[in-house]
Amino acid sequence: MARPISPIIIPYFRTGLYTHRSQLFAPIRSMGINVIQMKDALIDGQDLELTDLMEWQRRPGFSRFCSVQLAAGEIINQFSSERLPGGVVMPLFDSNQRVAKFTASSITTIWAKPTADQAFTKLIGSQLYIADGTTDGQKRYDTGTNVLHGMGILGPAAMPTVAAPTAAGPTFWQPGTVYGANIVLLLDPNGNIQINGKLFGGANLTTGTQPPLWNASQGGFTADGTGSWGNLGFPIQWQASHTYTFAVCVIDSNGNFQTGIGTTGATQPVWTTVIGTTVVDNTVTWTCRGPATPAVYSGYTYVYTYSTQAPTVTTGYYHCSTASPNTYTTGVVYMSTYSATISGAFSTNPDVGSVNVYRTKDGGSVLAYAFSIVNNTAGGTWSQADTTLDTALLTQTLVPLQGFHRNDVPPGTTGSIAPSTDKGSFLTYWNGRTWMIAGNKVYFTAGPDCQNGDPNASWPPANLFAYTSAPIALTPTSAGLLVWLPNALKIIAGGPGTLQFFSVDLLENFGISSPNCVDKDGDTIRVISTQGQQFTLTVQSKDEDGMFVADLIAGSFAPASSYITTHRNGLDSGVFLGDGATNLLRFGLNIGAWSTVYKPVGGIKALKSIETSVGKYTLCAGRASSAGFILGRDLSTYQDDTANYSGCFAVVGSIVLSEPLQPLAAIDWIAGYFAAVGTVPTVSILPNEIVGTSGVGFLTLSDPVDELGMTPPSTLLAKRWSVTNTSTKVASTLYHHMQIKIAFAQENFPNTIKLLALGPEPPK
Fold this sequence. Notes:
five-stranded antiparallel beta sheet, mainly beta, 65 strands, rod-shaped
C-alpha cells in the first residue's frame, strides 16, 4: 500500500556537494533544537557551480587571459603577482623553463632557468627577489631597469695588499714584502726598533704571511719569512761619552734615525742626512736610516668591498658585499706625508661596479669609507695610492665586517659559507626581514642590522632556525611566521631584533607536502594537508572545511601535486582546489558550500588567484600539458578556451520518501524550474538504489511537458517529467528513496537549476 505523500519541494540549494556520507539517506543538519534533512544535498555532479543565489548553474569557463602561447615544452608551475612602486601591477608566472611577467598580450622572460625546479618570488621596494632551490638559483630582478642580477654580492676572499716601503730606510710590517738585501727598520708593537737582520749578516728578507712574535730583548733576533729582524731596543737620544754594548737606534738632531754600536765622543758629530751614509763618532760609526718623524702614530688597517656602485652615489640600486679580511695594522709609519699603495683583486661578478676601500683613522678601530675604484669584471688587480686624510674619511659609511658576515650572499650561492646542502628556495617577507627556506633550515636577512647595502640581499649565515626535516613553505601572519613541515607546523615569533626571534611548536602530525597546498587569505590560512584533508586555520581555530567532500579530496587531490587558492573578485569569491591535472573543486565562501567537481577541458595544473590589474583579481590557470595558453576564470563564458565541457550534471539525493518498514511513497512526477536558456535538461532517477553504475542504473525520464496549467513563461523553463515515462518503464512508482540526476547538453549557456520538486499525480 502506498503512503500518501505531499509534493517534496526543494525551492533552493544551500547544502552543496556532500559526498562523504552514506548514499542511503540524506544528511542532516541541526537548526536550534530541530534536526532537518538536507534534501537539497548533491551526492555527485560535474561542472555545475553553486551560486550565491542558491542555484546550481553551469560553471564559468576558462578563457585565454594572455594571447601569447607558451614555449614548446613549457608548463607553468605557479602564478604570483606583485604591485610595483607607483601602483603598477606585475603578474608573474614560474614555469619549468623560466620566470616571466605577463599581460593580456605579452610574456616577458625575467630569468631563463637552468632547471625545471619551482621558483619563488618576493617584491620588496623595486627589487624582485627570486629563488629556486638550486646552486646560484638566487636572483634579484631590478624592476626599474628590467635587468636580472645575482642576489647579493660575494665579498673579496683575501685582504688587500698595503705596499710597505722596500727601499733602505723606515718601513712598516706587512705580509709578503720583499726587502731582499735592503736594510730597513720599523717600530714593533712593543715600541722597539727592529732592523733587517741583513745588517748582521743574515739572509735576504721576505716577510712571512703573518706578523712574527717579536723578540722583546735588545740584541735578540726574530725570525720572519726568509730572514730575521734584530732588536735595537727603544729609540733613544744621543748621549756623550756613552758606551752602547748592543746596536742601538738614536734619533739625531735632524730628526733622523741613526744606528750604531760602540762608545760615543764628547760632542755630537755632524750627522749625515742621506740614508745609508755614515758618520764616525769616536768608536761608533753611525748609519743614517731615514726620517724618524711619524706620519701615522698608531697605525692603519684596511679592508675592501665590492658594490654595485660607490657608496657616495645617491641614486639607483645600491648593495655592498661583506668586507675582505682586515689587513694587519701598519703600526707607526715614518714618512713626511703618508702615501701607501693599496691593491687587491677585481671582482668578475657583472653586478659589481665599484671596489670600495675602507680604513681606520690613526689610532681608531672603526673602518670608514676612504675611496673607490671602478671595477673591471674581466678580473685582474686594482691598485691606488692612499693619501686620504683622516678628516676626509666618511665615518657615517661603515663597512660590513667579515667577522659578522652581515652582507653575505644567500645560501646556495657559490662562495657562501653556509653548508652546500642549503640552497635557498621559498621566499617571503615578515617583520622587517626576508626569510628563505634552504635545506632543513629557515634563514633570514640582516634587515635593520645591515648598515651598508641592501638589507634584503644580506644573509648572515648565523641567522637561521634549523628543523628536523626540510620546511615546505613559510606563511607570514600577525601572530608570527608559520613554518610548514611535512608532519608539523612551527611558528617563528618575536623580533624585530635578531636575537629576539624564537621558534616554537604549533601543531604536530599536521603539515603539507607542497608549497602550492597552502594559501593565505589575510590571517586565514587554508591548506591541503599531507593527510589529504582541507583545513582552514585562524588565530583561534583549526577547522576541516573539506569534511563534506573528504573522500574526493583524499582520493583525487594528491598532497604533493595539488593546488589551493582563495579567489575574491567582487561578488565572485571562493576557495579553489586543483589536483594539478584534471579536477578542480570550489568552496563558495559566501554560501559556505562545495560545488561539483570541475573538469576543465584540456586539464589544468597551476592554479592561483592573483591581481592582474589594480583592484582586479583573476583566477589564473596553467595547462597540465605543454605549450598552452595562460587561462583565466571568465564569468561571461561557459566554455574552456572555446571548447564545451564533456559533462554537466547534478545528482540530488538520496531523497528519503519513506522510512524502512513503512509504506512506500508514490512518486509520479519530477518537476524543475530552470533558466530559460539552452536545451531542456535530461532528467534521470535512481530508484531505491545507492549506486548508479550497476544494477538498473539511472533511468532516463522522457517527454517533458510544461508545468500543469501554466502558460509557458518566457523567462523561466518550467518542466515536469512523468516517472513512468522512462527508457525501461519502471515496474513501480513506489519508493523508499531515490536520487535525481539533471544533465545539461554540451553548450555555451548558463544552464541553471532553480527549483526541484517531486510528488504524486497532481490534481486536474
